[in-house]
C-alpha cells in the first residue's frame, strides 16, 4: 500500500503539533498548579505563625494552666477567634491528638485514616497537609511555652484554585485545538507546495526517461529542491547532448557506409568508363595500323592515318593526364599550397591565355571582375578556370561568346562562367560532374573532350573550400557559378 509524500508530511505534521501542544499544556498546567501550591503553602505558613502568636499571647495573659488544660478549656474559643483572624476554618488538637476546639459549625471536620496519619505526623513537630475534595487540610505544630502543646489544622479552600485550573485547561484545550488546526492547515499548504515541487521533479525525471528532454529547470527555488531541479535540468541537457552526439556519429557512420558503397559503385563504373573510353581511340589506331599493313603504298591513306593516329594519341594523352590529375588530387592533397590570391588578376591572366583559342573558333571572350582576395592554391585556380573556359569554347557555336563575371556578395566571391553554346539538357544536369560523362558523346570525341574536366573542376573547387553549381539558363548556353570565401 503506497502513501503519497503529501499524506506522510501531513500526518507527521499533525502528530508533531499534537505532541508539541500536549507537552506545552502539561508543563504550563503543572507550573500553574505548583505556583498556586507554593503560594498557598506560604500563606498557610504565615497563618500558622499568626495562630502561634495568638495562642502564646492567650496562654501568658490568662490564668496559668497546664498546656493540656489550657487547650481543653479555651480551645473552642481560640479556634473561633483564630478563624476570624485568618479567614480560614481552624481546628486545634492537644498533645494526645484529641480535638480541643474547632470553628466549623454544624459540619463534621473531615477525618479518616489519612487525617489520623497526618495528625500523628504533625504531632512530631512537623508540617503535614492533605487534600480532601475541594479543601486542603494543613496541619502544623502548635507551640507552647516550652515545647509543642498540640496541632493547629487550617482548612484551606481549593474550589477557586480548582476552578481556575479547570478554566485554564479548557482554555488550553480550545486554544490548543485552534492553534493545532491553524498550524496544520498552514503546514499542510506549505508541505503541499513542497509535494507539488517534488511531483514536478518526478514528472521531469519521467520525461527524461521517455527521451522528452526538458527545455528549462522544472521549478525555481532557492533551496535544495531548487538545486535538485537545476541538477535534473543539466542532466537532461547532458543526456540530450550525448544522445544527439551518438545520433550524429551514427548518421556519419551511415553516411560513410553509403559513401563507401557509392564509391565502390562509382569505382566499378569508373573502371568500365575508362576502359571503354580508352578502347575507342585504341580501336581507331589499330584499324589504321591494319590498313597501313595492307596498303602501305597508298600516300593518301598514309596521310590520313598519320592525322587520325596523332589525333587519337593526343586524346589518349589528355585522358591519361586528367586521370592522373584526379588520382593525384585524391592522394596528394598536402602538395597544394593555398595562399592569398587576387581573383580578378588571376582571371585576367587566364583570359589572356585563352583569348587566342577563342578567336580561332570565332568566339568572343569577355571579363567583368571586381577586385577581391581569396585563399586558394594558384595552380588549382588556373586548372579550374582553364578547364571551364576550354569547355565553353569547345561546346560553343560559331560567333558565340564566353563571359566571365566576378563579384563580391557579403563574405563570398562569386565567379560566373557562361557561354552561348549547345547548353546542357535537364536530364543531364545531375550527372554533369561525374567522371567520363558527356552531354554529346560524338561532339565530345570530335572536340577531344574526355568527360573528366568538370569532375576535376569540382574536386579542385571543393578542396579549396569553395562550391560550384550549374545555373538554370533560359534558351541556349550554360552557366557555372563558383563561390569562394572572401578575405577582407
Number of helices: 10
Q: Termini, distance in Å? A: 73 Å
What spatial form do the alpha-carbon principal axes imply?
rod-shaped
Low-confidence stretches: 443-448
- Output mean pLDDT: 80
Amount of beta strand: 15-25%
Helical residue percent? Answer: 55-70%
Can you characterise this structure?
The chain is an alpha+beta fold and 488 residues long. The chain is 60% helix and 16% strand. The strands form two sheets. Strands 6, 7, 8, 9, 10, 11 and 12 form a seven-stranded mixed beta sheet that branches. α1 (5-61) runs antiparallel to α4 and α8 packs antiparallel against α10 (453-463). It is rod-shaped, with a radius of gyration of 61 Å. The relative contact order is 0.06.
Essential attributes:
5-stranded antiparallel sheet; 16% strand; 10 helices; 488 residues; 7-stranded mixed sheet; single chain; alpha+beta
SSE topology:
Elements: H1 5-61, H2 67-86, E1 89-94, E2 99-102, H3 113-122, E3 128-132, E4 135-143, E5 148-157, H4 159-209, H5 224-294, H6 299-331, E6 338-342, H7 343-360, E7 364-369, E8 373-377, H8 378-394, E9 401-409, E10 412-419, H9 441-447, H10 453-463, E11 467-470, E12 479-487
Parallel strand pairs: 7-9
Antiparallel strand pairs: 1-2, 1-5, 3-4, 4-5, 6-8, 8-12, 9-10, 10-12, 11-12
Helix pairs in contact: 1-2, 1-4, 4-5, 5-6, 6-10, 7-8, 8-10
Amino acid at each position: 500500500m503506497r502513501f503519497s509524500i503529501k499524506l506522510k508530511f501531513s500526518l507527521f505534521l499533525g502528530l508533531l503539533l499534537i505532541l508539541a501542544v500536549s507537552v506545552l499544556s502539561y508543563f504550563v498546567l503543572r507550573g500553574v498548579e505548583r505556583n498556586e501550591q507554593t503560594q498557598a503553602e506560604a500563606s498557610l505558613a504565615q497563618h500558622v505563625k499568626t495562630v502561634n502568636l495568638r495562642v502564646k499571647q492567650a496562654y501568658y495573659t490568662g490564668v496559668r494552666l497546664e498546656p493540656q488544660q489550657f487547650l481543653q478549656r479555651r480551645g473552642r474559643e481560640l479556634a473561633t477567634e483564630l478563624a476570624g483572624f485568618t479567614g480560614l476554618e481552624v481546628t486545634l488538637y492537644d498533645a494526645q491528638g484529641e480535638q480541643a476546639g474547632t470553628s466549623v459549625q454544624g459540619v463534621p471536620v473531615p477525618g479518616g485514616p489519612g487525617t489520623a496519619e497526618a495528625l500523628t505526623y504533625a504531632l512530631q513537630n512537623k508540617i503535614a497537609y492533605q487534600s480532601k475534595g475541594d479543601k486542603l487540610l494543613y496541619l502544623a505544630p502548635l507551640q507552647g511555652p516550652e515545647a509543642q502543646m498540640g496541632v493547629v489544622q487550617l482548612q484551606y479552600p481549593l474550589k477557586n484554585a480548582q476552578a481556575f485550573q479547570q478554566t485554564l485547561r479548557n482554555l488550553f484545550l480550545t486554544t490548543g485545538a485552534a492553534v493545532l488546526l491553524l498550524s496544520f492547515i498552514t503546514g499542510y499548504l506549505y508541505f503541499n507546495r513542497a509535494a507539488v515541487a517534488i511531483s514536478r521533479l518526478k514528472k521531469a525525471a519521467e520525461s527524461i526517461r521517455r527521451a522528452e528532454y526538458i527545455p528549462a529547470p522544472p521549478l525555481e527555488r532557492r533551496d535544495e529542491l531548487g538545486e535538485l531541479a537545476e541538477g535534473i535540468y543539466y542532466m537532461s541537457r547532458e543526456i540530450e547532448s550525448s544522445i544527439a552526439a551518438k545520433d550524429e556519429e551514427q548518421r556519419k557512420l551511415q553516411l560513410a557506409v553509403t559513401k563507401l558503397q557509392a564509391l565502390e559503385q562509382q569505382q566499378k563504373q569508373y573502371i568500365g568508363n575508362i576502359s571503354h573510353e580508352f578502347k575507342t581511340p585504341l580501336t581507331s589506331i589499330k584499324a589504321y595500323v591494319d590498313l597501313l599493313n595492307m596498303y602501305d603504298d597508298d600516300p593518301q591513306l598514309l596521310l590520313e592515318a598519320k592525322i587520325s593516329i596523332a589525333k587519337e594519341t593526343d586524346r589518349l594523352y589528355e585522358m591519361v593526364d586528367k586521370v592522373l590529375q584526379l588520382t593525384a588530387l585524391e592522394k596528394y592533397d598536402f602538395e597544394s599550397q593555398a595562399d592569398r590570391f587576387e581573383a580578378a588578376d588571376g582571371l585576367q591572366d587566364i583570359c589572356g591565355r585563352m583569348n587566342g583559342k577563342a578567336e580561332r573558333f570565332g568566339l568572343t571572350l569577355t571579363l567583368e571582375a571586381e577586385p577581391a582576395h581569396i585563399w586558394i592554391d594558384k595552380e588549382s585556380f588556373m586548372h579550374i578556370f582553364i578547364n571551364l573556359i576550354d569547355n565553353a569554347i569547345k561546346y560553343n557555336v560559331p560567333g558565340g561568346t564566353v563571359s566571365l563575371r566576378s563579384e563580391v556578395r557579403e563574405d563570398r566571391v562569386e565567379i560566373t562562367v557562361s557561354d552561348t553554346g549547345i547548353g546542357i539538357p535537364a536530364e543531364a544536369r545531375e550527372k554533369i560532374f561525374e567522371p567520363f560523362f558527356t552531354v554529346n558523346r560524338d561532339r565530345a570525341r570530335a572536340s577531344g573532350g574526355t568527360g573528366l574536366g568538370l569532375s576535376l573542376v569540382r574536386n579542385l573547387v571543393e578542396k579549396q573550400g569553395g562550391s560550384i553549381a550549374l545555373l538554370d539558363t533560359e534558351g541556349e548556353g550554360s552557366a557555372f557559378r563558383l563561390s569562394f570565401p572572401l578575405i577582407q
